Structure formats: C-alpha cells, structure tokens
C-alpha cells in the first residue's frame, strides 16, 4: 500500500486545484480561502467544471451539499450530474451556481422556531475553506446552512465566525509584541472513543438499535477491573477493522494517526493529527460516519453513544485545542526566549479568564442526555469546569499573583516583572486525567465532550470566550504608555481574579465538589440544569459582541437543545417500555410458569421441591413489581408537559428516576432467570464475544 499516494486521493485538495485550475482562477480561489473574499460567478463556474471533471474521473455520478444541521449529524441530498443537452443527449454537468448554493428542503430540520413552516426554505452555501471530497460515488461539498432571512441553521457557520473572531483578536495581541501575522487559527485534534460489538448481538437489542445504549442489563461477572484491555493487544478482527478504517480515512485526507484499545472491554480510540478547527470538525464528523460504515463491513456495530453500558466506562471525545499563526507558531507553547514567555503568559491568562467567565457555556456545549451518564460518574471529569495547569505552571502563577519570586530563579526575571518560565516537563502536566480542561505542554485538552458530539459547538464557545478575553486585554494594552509594565500588571490582576478556576487535585473526589462550591464555581449536574443558563444576559452579550449569534438565534438554539434532550429521554423510556412489556416480562413469566409446572409435576410423584417453588415465587414477585413500575413509567411518559423547558425537567426529575427503578428490577430478574429464557444478549455475551 502506498500511503502517500493514497492519502487524500478522494479530496479536491490544494494539489488537485493547482493541477486542474488556470493560475488566475486558482489564485482567486486562494484569496477566498485565506482572506474570506467573495467568489466571482465566472470563477465559480470554472471551479465547478474542474471539480466535476475530477469527480467523474474518480467514478462519481452525483454531488451533494454536505452540511451540519442542528441535529448534530451531517446531512446530504444527492443530485446527479446528468443533464439533457439541446440535442436530447445526456451529459454530465455541474455549474458554479450548483457548487456555491443549494436549496435543500429545510422544513424537516430543527430550527427552534426561526422559520415559520410556510417559508421553510433554507439554503446551503459552499465553504471553500474545507475541501470537497468523494464518498460513495458522490462529490460532497462542505457547506453552511442558513435560512432565507439570513439566520443560521447549522453548526458550521457559527464555528467559522468564532474562528474569525479569535483570529482578529489574536492578531491584535501579537501586534503588541511586534509580530505581524495575517491569521491565527484555532487548531483542534479530536480524540474519538468508540465501542465495537458484534453486529448479531446489536441486532437483537432494540435499545441499542433505537437509542444507542443498553437500557437494561445486569453487569457481567467481569468488567474493566483487571485493566487488561487498555492498550492491550488488539483482536485480529478489530485490527482488520482499524486498518480498513485508516485506509478509508486517509483517502479522505483525514490524518488518522493512532488507534488503540481503551479502558472498557470492546472500547477503542482513534486520534488524528490536529488541523484548523473547521477542517478538524468536518473530519471528525466524517470519521464518525466512516467508523459506523466500516464496522458494518467487518460484522461489527460501532457504538458512538456516551454510555452504551452501565458499570463500565463510557466514551468521550478529547478536544485538544491550541492557537497557531499562519507562520506555524503555536501561541500556547511557552517558547524559549523571555519575550516568548511573556506572550505565552498573556495567551494563557486569556484562556484562564475565558474558561472562568464562561464555565457555563463550556458545560452547556457538552450537555446531552447521553453525556449526563458520564460527567461526574468517576470515569470522566465532573460537571464542574476547572483547569489543570500542572505544578510548575501553578508555581509560576502563584509567584505572579503573590508577587514572590519563583523559587530558585530570582536572577532571571522577565521585563514584565515576573520570573522567566521554567522548562515545563510535558509528561508532568499530562498526569491528571481527572481534570476537564488540562494544559498538556503546548495545548489544552478539553475532556468533557461526549463521543457522539459535533465538536463545533464546544469550539464556538471556546474560541469566542478566548477572543473576548483577548479583546479586553488589547483594548487596555494598546493604550498603554509602558507596555511591559501594563502587561505585567494586567496578567497579575487577571490571574488573581480568575485563579479560582485552577485546580490540580483529584477532580473525581467529593471533596472537590464541596471546595468548588465554596469557590463559587458552577456545578450543573444534568443537561437542563445547564441549558437554562444558555441565554443568560452575559452569554447573549458575548455572542452579540463578536457577531456569532443574534439573540433570536440563541433562543432558537436553546429551544432545540431542550427539545432534543426531552425527546431523547422520551424515546429511551418508550423503548424501555416496549422491551419490558413485550420481551422481558413475558419471558420471565414463561420461566416462572415452567417452574410452576415443575413444582406440580414433582409434587405429583410425591417430591416436595423447595428450590423450584422458591425461585418461582421470587421471579413472580419481581415480575409483579416490574409490571407495576412499567405502568407507572407509562403514565409518567404520557404526562409530558407541552412546554419544552418543562418537558425537559419532567424528563430529568421524573422519567429518569422511574427508568432507573425499572432497570433495577429487570436486572435483578435477569440474574435469576434461566438464560435460555432471557430474550436479549446479556452484557457478558456482548462485551466478551468470541
Ligand atoms: P496524548 O494526549 O495521548 O498525549 P498527543 O498529545 O500526542 O497525545 O496528541 C493528542 C491529540 O492532540 C492529537 O490528536 C494531536 O494531533 C492533538 N494535538 C497536538 N498538538 C496540538 C495542537 N497544537 N493543537 C491542537 N491539537 C493538538
Ligand atoms: Mg490525550
């Protein structure tokens, strides 16, 4: 296999454009891509024609505008290239207009009331900063999705806006240090966790098929306690899957870099090489899709849900985040010279301030019914947002805030009145796995996102909040007479103010929850608790200030998120009811009746059977309790309020506790029911398949 040759072979990338486009057209497209200049119609026609020629040569017959509506998954509507020409012949055609603008029927995508249904028209617009690619014989054109009145209906548009916001402010900040750069990009590396289970087990479980997770299931005799799966040797069948996945991703220009086993049985991870936030987000969306598709080919089902199985770890997505100039300088690298150190401290301070001031937004960006099972459950960071910077950087920050020289380094001080940074040991800073937001040497790793999430939302929050902190800093520093003195004073003041968000200890401990409360940090345990803060005044003001969302767009997003949550719980509860009533109860009752017959038979020949009787009575009483619980759950589900916020709280306060109670009874039944009667594959069947 020639990897360099294969890599990106299905992508209309820079190399292809250079080869296929006239020089002038290529240049004009570059200007659009780098500087965001509008594309001329003539140029679009030429690009479209080259794109079509390339795509057809690769076997493509269709094209689609590939976009990311609020559902979180990517959407596509395929059109074929065929057109009938004047002579009635079929030709393959693709115009600039078709490339730059599409009109999917938008009425069935969630809009949170932004578009009245009678004018449910939306359009998609080409995003030339993310390359077009071929998937399933279809040319996919990454696009943004808006309503005709200009309101945004997708996840890509706000991400692009937030990238512009942070670029603008970071460029300003760098100018203060005498650096002239054109663009600063937020860079993202999204580590993706997932489960692979045998397709035949998956097919037999209604809960997995409809909700992505097991709603019932007693724990297997073995879980993850032996720690023998993490980085363990990979089963040949899984290895074949990973090799195939790598190949598919490489063809799409996705830099799949590492593949390994994770902590839980059947759990794995893939990490790509980082890229700018827009491309990394598109790549992650495609990665998730490819994982599912390739899994099918290998007789697996790929589970991307945050918590497919109770009692073992769920899956997350680590969002590694840094800032990089167009010259390739990483602004979160402490650097080697004192000047770089000072610049690093300014950017570090901006991140600390941003995360403290907008902890609620970061929490909201990872809130979902699925992720509620992970956060704070001793396997993932708590619902409290805090930052881990490591002992050394912590000591530096203490020395700045408290004004005492950094230990042993009195002699080397920066112009800004603080000590020169020590050389940070990378491994040291990566040790704390319990922190939700960890500095790992030259980037931050945000560990709260769920495995099934579109990472756009998290990065919109992060980019915008950091842009806002930088804006505030630049507004002060640009006016300063003595730059170094002002910079020193500003860093000191801000770190002092936002120090409460720094925490190096064990994020899983109860003690931290108490301490965080004393520090005034928010702790929103469930999705609706967090979501209701989305439209808080300060958050609305932030997004308005940077031109990311209007207030109306924010309110619509809140409504969509609340609705998505309550629907997810509703579907889970209904699925559970169906399984309990039509599979679990009838099966256990059959088992009880078999036991009863056996008691009868035995007594007929004069044997008193204690065990059959005892077991029959246990199974029967569990069935009674479970039947009552299903009725209670059914009633509760039917009593769902109309109002979307009330419905979300109804789900969290009432439906979920009842589901937990029903599950407990069902799981107890499972442990006493003859396996040959049990209607669905169990945890040991699924997690320890052969
Ligand atoms: P680990 O976190 O396991 O130590 P690495 O730090 O090598 O592994 O990388 C984890 C992820 O972070 C990878 O996806 C990598 O591409 C990404 N990453 C590395 N540097 C940056 C950066 N400057 N910006 C964003 N992501 C980065
Ligand atoms: Mg990592």
What does this structure look like?
The chain has about 700 residues and is α+β, with helices and mostly antiparallel strands. The protein is built from 23 helices and 18 strands. A hairpin with a 5-residue loop joins β4 (about 80-85) and β5 (about 90). α11 (about 340-355) crosses α15, α13 (about 390-400) packs across α16 (about 485-500) and α21 packs antiparallel against α22. The longest helix has about 55 residues, at about 550-605. The protein is globular and about 100 Å long. Adenosine-5'-diphosphate binds near residues 189 and 442.
Main β sheet profile: 9 strands, mixed
**Residue fraction in strands:** 5-15%
Overall SS class:
alpha+beta
What would the average pLDDT be, to the nearest integer? Answer: 91
Question: How far apart lie the N and C ends?
Answer: 30 Å
* Rounded Rg: 28 Å
Ligands in the model, by name, code or SMILES, are:
adenosine-5'-diphosphate, magnesium ion
> Would you count the extended β strands for me?
18
Low-pLDDT segments, ≥5 res: none
- The percentage helix is 40-55%
Shape: globular
Helix segment tally: 23
């Amino acid at each position: 296999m020639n990897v360099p040759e294969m890599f990106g072979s299905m992508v209309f990338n820079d190399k292809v454009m250079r080869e296929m486009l006239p020089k002038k057209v290529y240049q004009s497209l570059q200007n659009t891509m780098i500087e965001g200049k509008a594309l001329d119609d003539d140029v679009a026609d030429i690009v479209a024609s080259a794109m079509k020629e390339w795509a057809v040569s690769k076997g493509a017959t269709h094209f689609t505008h590939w976009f990311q509506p609020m559902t979180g998954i990517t959407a596509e509507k395929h059109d074929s290239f065929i057109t009938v020409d004047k002579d009635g012949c079929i030709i393959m055609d693709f115009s600039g207009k078709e490339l730059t603008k599409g009109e999917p029927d938008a009425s069935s995508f969630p809009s949170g009331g932004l578009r009245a249904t009678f004018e449910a028209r939306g359009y998609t617009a080409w995003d030339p900063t993310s390359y077009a690619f071929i998937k399933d014989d279809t040319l996919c054109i990454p696009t943004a999705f808006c309503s005709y009145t200009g309101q945004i209906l997708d996840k890509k548009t706000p991400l692009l806006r937030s990238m512009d916001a942070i670029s603008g402010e970071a460029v300003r900040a760098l100018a203060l240090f005498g650096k002239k750069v054109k663009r600063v990009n937020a860079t993202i590396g999204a580590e993706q966790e997932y489960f692979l289970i045998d397709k035949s087990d998956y097919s037999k479980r209604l809960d997995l098929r409809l909700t992505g997770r097991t709603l019932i299931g007693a724990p297997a005799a073995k879980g993850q306690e032996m720690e023998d799966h993490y980085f363990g040797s990979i089963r040949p069948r899984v290895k074949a899957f990973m090799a195939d996945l790598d190949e598919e991703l490489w063809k799409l220009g996705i830099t799949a870099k590492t593949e390994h086993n994770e902590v839980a049985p059947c759990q794995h991870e893939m990490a790509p090489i980082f890229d700018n936030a827009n491309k990394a987000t598109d790549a992650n969306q495609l990665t998730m899709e490819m994982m599912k598709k390739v899994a099918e080919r290998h007789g697996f089902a790929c589970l991307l849900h945050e918590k497919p199985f109770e009692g073992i770890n769920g899956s997350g997505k680590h969002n590694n985040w840094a800032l990089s100039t167009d010259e390739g300088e990483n602004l979160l690298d402490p650097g080697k010279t004192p000047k770089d150190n000072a610049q690093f401290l300014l950017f570090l301070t901006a991140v600390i301030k941003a995360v403290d001031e907008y902890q609620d937004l970061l929490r909201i960006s990872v809130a979902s019914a699925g992720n509620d099972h992970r956060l704070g459950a001793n396997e993932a960071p708590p619902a409290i947002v805090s930052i881990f910077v490591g002992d050394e950087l912590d000591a530096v920050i203490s020395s700045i805030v408290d004004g005492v020289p950094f230990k042993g380094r009195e002699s080397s001080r920066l112009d800004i009145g603080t000590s020169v940074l020590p050389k940070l040991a990378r491994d040291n800073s990566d040790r704390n796995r319990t922190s939700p937001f960890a500095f790992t040497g030259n980037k931050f790793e945000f560990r709260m996102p769920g495995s099934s999430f579109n990472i756009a939302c998290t990065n919109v929050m992060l980019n915008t909040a950091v842009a806002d902190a930088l804006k505030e800093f630049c507004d002060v520093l640009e006016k300063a007479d003595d730059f170094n003195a002002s910079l020193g004073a500003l860093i000191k003041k801000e770190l002092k103010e936002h120090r409460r968000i720094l925490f190096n200890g064990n994020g899983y401990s109860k003690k931290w929850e108490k301490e965080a409360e004393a520090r005034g940090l928010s702790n929103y345990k469930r999705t609706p608790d967090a979501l209701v803060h989305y439209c808080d005044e300060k958050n609305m003001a932030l997004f308005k200030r940077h031109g990311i969302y209007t207030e109306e767009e924010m309110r619509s997003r809140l409504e969509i998120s609340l609705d998505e949550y309550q629907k997810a719980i509703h579907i889970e509860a209904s699925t559970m009811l169906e399984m309990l009533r039509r599979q679990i109860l009838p099966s256990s009752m059959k088992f009880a009746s078999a036991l009863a017959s056996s008691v009868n038979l035995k007594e007929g020949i004069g044997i008193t059977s204690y065990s059959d009787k005892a077991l029959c009575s246990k199974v029967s009483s569990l069935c009674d309790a479970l039947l009552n619980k299903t009725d209670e759950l059914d009633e509760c589900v039917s009593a769902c309020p109309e109002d979307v916020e009330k419905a979300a709280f109804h789900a969290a306060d009432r439906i979920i506790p009842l589901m937990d109670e029903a599950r407990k009874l069902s799981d107890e039944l499972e442990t006493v029911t003859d396996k040959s009667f049990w209607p669905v594959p169990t945890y040991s069947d699924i997690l320890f398949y052969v």
